[in-house]
Design goal:
By secondary structure, the chain is mainly beta. Helices cover 4% and strands 47% of the residues. Among the domains are: 271 residues, no CATH class; 188 residues, no CATH class.
Amino acid sequence: MAVALLTSVPALADVGSASTLTATGVATTATTVTLVTGDQVVVTARPGQQTSYAMRPVAGGAGAFESYDDASGDHYAVPVVAMPYLGKGLDLSLFDVTRLAQETSSDNVVSSDNQRISVDLSFAPGATPTGPAGVTLTSVDGSAAQGYLTASSGTAFTAALRRQIGADVAAGRQPGATPLFDGVTSMSLAGAPDGGTTVSPQYALNILQINATGMSGRPTGAYLSLYNTDSFTRENVSVNVVNGVARVAVPAGNYGLYGVFYDYNTQGQLAALRQFSLSDFTVSATGTTTVPLDETTASSQFSVATPRPATQDIVMTDYFRRDATGATSSMLLSLWGSTPLYTNAQPAARVGAIHDVIQWGAEAPSASDGYRYDVAYGSDDVPADQAHVEKASTLATVQEHFAIDPAANNSYSGSLLNGFVDSYNNAGGDSLISPWNGQRWPADVTDYLGTGDGGTWAQMASSPANVWQYGDPLTFASGRSYTVDWNHGPLKPELAQHTGYQFCFACAAGSNLTVILDPAVDSEPTHVGFYSFVTVPENFTLYADGQQVFNSTYQDGVELQGVPTTPTTYRTVYDTDLSGNSKFSQSTKTHTDLTFRYTPQTGGSSALPAADYCFGESDSTPCQILPALTLGYQLTSDNNNTSDQLIQSMRLNVGHVSYDGAGSHSRITSANVSVSYDGGTTWKPTLVVGLNGTYEVVWPNPVSKRGTSPAIKVTATDAAGGSITQTITNAYTIAAPKS
């Protein structure tokens, strides 16, 4: 969770047993981590939610990564080009994304391209320390040195790795057989532990020997995840097979493993990926247990036939392993490009469970064709037949519309990320992936989504203006059509009407209360949105019964401890101001004033669904959804949020924050909309027709105001005494006269 401010204020008069009210400010943060290969990982921390990781392979090449969390919780992303040298010169610490993110966030780095990745290097005896390709040395002490790489220099480092791998392949050697270039014997993240800590075993240990052979039948390397399936607490470790052999001391018991063999060509590029797993095997309590891994058995090629021509641009495998106690671990492999994937057939697990999901994406022959495919297939074994055939009747047709502020720099691409959602990946965050060349904005694209893993998908879009929108998990039915609008304005702070597994942004649990407003929500009721890598002047204030309990100029939410356990009126005032940023001409200022009265209770229609969670909840302190009003705008405009209509129309939906339908159902008692053509100096009423939350709104777009951007102001109330007023400056643009 992103936490940045902690304050204490005197208790309100009726706090009950609590004596001090503590306010902790929260906000979404995004950090770009650069790896030594030049690849990047965007680390996003959302309040109350699991950190997500979006890979950005270096432009111009097919990238691939293995990703996983270690026992300490650190997240690793290892580029496949580094695999032949992992543990043979390149230390795993170089790919510790968690540590890199911590170091990056503490640096005053203006651009992610200029981030320095500081490294420690060791050189062979007698070698003159010289910076390898892409590495700048800053100090030398005998055979040890320190230096750094950047995103741009990392591409040179990667090119040198590829040349070395290609030379090994051309000479008939195992990739990585030749020592690392320029006399380097080891390179690690600066200050990383040496891994020499002695650990006292809690169980009697026995030797497990893993023998790996490649496609030629000769010994080969592999990087494996080894699981004790009786309990991961006994063993859950990464094993590096070097020159065909790995020996590891483990407790006796039931085990499974997962890994990938990488085949390279003479250019050092990937030629094939071969996923290898064993659902079950036993490590004996006596003697040495030997387990052979034969790459040739990974011979089932994964393929998808689609109704329209399409070329693979994404493959992702997510292998979940569950032990006998119910604990789950996973290994994620992400691949960009057309490299083929092969698997070895495996039965369902005898001990615990496995769940193997392959997600696949493909692009149309030309961007002008305006379509793509994203499908996923999940099974509780690894099937022998990996050839899949999709038909129009097995796919959902999703019309994706990408809108962008006319002032934004759209000379480069944004992204549309898709991720499968199922019982093993219920939020979808681990599986969100997009083509490396991104998505152009503005645009209209047909995305054919598969239903082979249940049809539930999470989506996320990032515009070239660095406005990010996250969609809730939605289930798409085969044979049906859908429409999803991304970044369709006016963008505004909002609470949402959520579906699927969620952390509650407007909930109370006992004396704990959370209110978080995402600052850049678009027209979809199940979307949340925020500005990433954009400085947004803002002011967020929360009052309880008229007393200010929190204020922040850089956060958009707060978690309170010690709130009253009696009825209390809360008021949130939130302002954002992008008027000083030339890359934004719409929704440049927003003012949101939200009031609701909360009466503590348990159960009822406002009880948060059991699948969701909130701050401060426990078995004895369930979550209640706050009765806060929401505003949804469906403004008639194009993909530049521009309207050429003489009479402007907008659908207005007034409701309450909800989670799978749970929340306040208090009757909406009023809704009013006004428009200003002079920046808010004067306001004109609009025609609002409808009742109880659903309204059609119309107003004129004067010919004299063409090329300008009006402001709108919306007010609404409910029968419980709740109210909301929202003002959006430059809400949309009236189209300029045609020349």
